Amino acid sequence: xxxxxxxxxxxxxxxxxxxxxxxxxxxxxxxxxxxxxxxxxxxxxxxxxxxxxxxxx
Length: 57
Description:
By secondary structure, this protein is an all-alpha fold. The chain has helices spanning 3-26, 29-56. 91% of the residues lie in helices and 0% in strands. Helix 1 (3-26) packs antiparallel against helix 2 (29-56).
């Protein structure tokens, strides 16, 4: 996993979690959903990079 892709995945995960938490706190379902999507994209990006690394060995 390249450092840039790893950082991008982690950033998406953290930003998504923050949006999700904020949305829950203020009762904004749209913001909560956006956060969940963003976090999922980060999770998928991280899984993709891990799979690439596994096949390079």
